[in-house]
Amino acid sequence: MRDSQPFQGRAIHLVQWKSPGPVGEPYKEANHVGFYRHHASATRSGLLAAHDRVVAAGGRPYGPPSFIFITPTSGTNAFAFPDPDGTTLEWVGGLDPNPNGLPDNISAYNANCRDLRRSYRFYRDVMGQTIQSRLNPVIPQPPESGSLGNLLRNPDGSVYTGLIDFDAVTTGYRADFRNVHDLLEWQMPRPFGKPYEAPNNLGSVNVAWEVDDIQDSYEKLVRLGVRGIRGGLVRPPETWDMGEYGTRRVLNFRDPDGIMIQLHERPAPTAQEPI
Hints:
Layout: E1 34-41, H1 47-56, E2 66-69, E3 75-82, E4 88-92, E5 105-113, H2 116-125, E6 130-135, E7 165-173, E8 176-188, E9 206-211, H3 214-223, E10 238-241, E11 247-254, E12 260-265
Parallel strand pairs: 1-4, 5-8, 9-12
Antiparallel strand pairs: 1-5, 2-3, 3-4, 6-7, 7-8, 10-11, 11-12
């Protein structure tokens, strides 16, 4: 599923597992390690209208649209809410409509990590991404800022109710701002839990990118010692039947926190080249 912007970027891949069936439940804690939130920007419609649409569709926002600092001097308005399975989605942007603004769009996904510097090095050196912005508000904020979720936990599992603080970077591929990766290390409270172990767990399990040569990608991952889904080194690419989408060569592995990543090989063009 994609948004309506003419220059298509990311998509959300909805999967219903048939055999085996889905297991577990999505993360409940806003500081849970793993993919917690999908961001969407209400640039044209405005955040208040987005909130009304969510409520009209039977959604239950964690709170009203509220301001959250993302740098020492600036921030954004945001609110989050669970989808019917409990996976957290988020709208960000100005409160009021902007008819001249860009179309509303899927803008980023949030990966909560344990060590921002370690994760950033992985996505820079292994995945080839570059930094786009640093999000470090410095001053702790009230826990309801941004309406990110209903619950925060300390690493020992006890409920946390104090101020919040985080350090984060957004990364992407060169000038492509359609596919932003929001790496966030919670500092108050510290990160909780571990990523999904099972690929058929309910929730945002992985993120996928297209590559030109999946064999070349596999050999690089092996040289760098990247671990596979089931432990040990990453396994060789597989060919998957994806129905109307066709067959794709696919590679699965994990980042330093154990978050699942997938690569798809994009088929080569078949048009005749000019001689």
